[in-house]
Design brief:
The chain is of the alpha+beta class. The chain contains 8 helices and 16 strands.
């Protein structure tokens, strides 16, 4: 049996959940296998057309950010462990899963999305135009679309929709704390979100990208009581990245390299929110090209180059293991 992006199920592992984009398997009591498929979701539904090689690109970029952020923020831990495949995956399936899979710590997820915004755009701009607020926060008159918020980035948490037909809803910090159930953890999530954003925005800007907004997810390590960053990190699907050279305040739309182009196509076509919609080849190709531009600028290499390095390392490790087995170690 296969998923709608032709990624086979793994009968040798216990399937914990199958989401709109990710499949999660249990490896042991402390470790999960998180697989990012090529499935595409938008407006809280899954589309019928996959985006080829999207899974490896998002996974490799998340692993890259995990290394960058934990080096820059000593107090930060993420759930990322390794890109290495577990031995339970049979040899004939390993090429399919290499690069789109990562082993991660098992955490208790906090049921909010931690969103940080630095520039007013899209739904934030629409809200501001109605009543001068963004996610319930008031702002002075005279702001323009695409402008940086006057006093710096803002933290605007939301609910995390978990059932079909549900949508994420903006909430206040106090409402987020109630959902989290612990004021210390709620404060830690906000503080980490802002610190991560500041490090990531500076890193991206040095590479020609503006990080206009992004969403983070966090979980609790029940063994240590620590709050950890989890799920995808600063990808073109969880973030808005704009090319610095194309940024124009008041332009009514920026030159992005993220998922916004796909969302806009769905909206203009009148099919946003409809499950099972197919995408034209041109939209698939252009979306993939935008994701690749973001990856190359942030990592300094193409996703294909990084994938090749990972495959070479995996092959070398397999050869070394086979040699040890043959030698009787």
């Amino acid at each position: 049996m296969s998923s709608n992006n032709h990624t086979p199920l793994l009968p040798s592992l216990a399937l914990l959940s199958r989401g709109k984009v990710r499949d999660i398997y249990t490896l042991n009591s402390t470790t999960l296998l998180l697989i990012t498929t090529d499935r595409v979701s938008a407006y809280d539904v899954t589309l019928s057309t996959p985006l080829p090689s999207k899974g490896p690109l998002l996974t490799l970029l998340t692993a890259h950010w995990s290394r960058i952020l934990t080096a820059a923020i000593p107090s930060l831990r993420t759930h990322f462990l390794t890109l290495s495949l577990p031995p339970q995956i049979p040899p004939h399936l390993r090429p399919i899963y290499l690069g789109r899979s990562m082993q991660v710590l098992t955490l208790l997820p906090f049921k909010i999305e931690a969103i940080v915004r630095s520039h007013i755009t899209r739904e934030a701009w629409d809200s501001y135009m109605v009543d001068g607020t963004v996610c319930g926060l008031p702002f002075p008159p005279g702001l323009q679309e695409g402008q940086a918020f006057p006093d710096g980035p803002i933290y605007t948490p939301s609910t995390k929709a978990s059932n079909p037909g549900e949508h994420d809803e903006d909430i206040s910090e106090s409402e987020a704390a109630l959902i989290i159930g612990n004021t210390h953890h709620a404060r830690r999530i906000k503080d980490l979100s802002m610190e991560i954003y500041n490090v990531a925005a500076a890193y991206a800007l040095e590479r020609g990208l503006i990080l206009a907004d992004t969403k983070f997810e966090f979980g609790l390590d029940e063994g240590t009581g620590e709050v950890l960053l989890m799920d995808e990190i600063l990808t073109p699907e969880s973030s808005r990245f704009w090319k610095v050279e194309g940024w124009r305040v008041g332009a009514g739309g920026q030159e992005g390299v993220d998922k916004q182009y796909l969302r806009d196509w769905l909206k203009v076509s009148g099919v946003n929110g409809q499950a099972g919609v197919g995408l034209p080849e041109e939209v698939v190709m252009k979306t993939g090209q935008m994701y690749e531009v973001a990856f190359r600028r942030l990592v300094g290499k193409s996703s294909g180059e990084v994938m090749g390095e990972l495959a070479a390392a995996a092959a070398a490790a397999a050869a070394a293991a086979a040699g040890e087995e043959e030698a009787g170690f």
